[in-house]
Amino acid sequence: MVNHVPEAPASKSGDWAFLGAESGSVADRLYLSAAEEWNRAINSRFVNELLDDTLPDNVLVSYLIQDFKFFNQGIMDHAIALAPREETKEMLRKQSKFFADEEAPYFTDFLKVYHVTDEQYEHAPQTPANKEYCDYLAEVVNGTWEELITALCCMEWLYLAWAKRTVDAGVVQQVPAHKGWVDLHEGELFRAWTGRLIALVNEYASVDGPEAEVFRRIVHLERRFFEDAYDLA
Length: 233
Ligand SMILES: Cc1ncc(CN)c(N)n1
Prior knowledge:
One of its GO terms (molecular function) is thiaminase activity. One of its GO terms (cellular component) is cytosol. Pathway: Cofactor biosynthesis; thiamine diphosphate biosynthesis. This protein is mainly α. The protein is built from twelve helices and no strands. It binds 5-(aminomethyl)-2-methylpyrimidin-4-amine (NSP).
């Protein structure tokens, strides 16, 4: 039996008040400014199939190879360097350690279980969206703290938003790799991390500043990143 996970409804102001994006806050307004494409990303075919356990293995492999390449870019190191307060640097360092301890082993175990060789991994070309995303982030990390924290917040928040669909529906994936990917992006720890990023966006970003364009561009790239998984599978 397939446990179907319904699509997320259209975004509305205050959806994420429970994580600090209260109605009218900077984070809430940025979220609403990208609502249409955000919704398409979190309800994309890739996410739907992953949550319903109907995703073909070759698509999952293609996506996770891309995502491991994306993960290895070192964006957290740049955020730590740019963070204006020591307590923020410390929070980011702790999260970076969490990624190294929890997310990196997910990738390496996955590649082993799905028989992806080092050679296959190394030789897989980056998809156009991943290449564009990595190039864009290379620009963002050389920009301002305000832009970088907006980019980081947006990408993590969007991941929590798609994973939350399955928690809301009470569906647990039966394919271990699907469940593992959901578990990394939904739960107390990931919510707390996203909430801390939302608080930083509320504190530092501006809806009238360049951060607004950063937020929308990240949502756009995230949507395309999911779509590209099918092209190289
Ligand atoms: C492309 C992308 N964006 C965000 C995430 C969540 N860390 C991710 N794993 N991959």
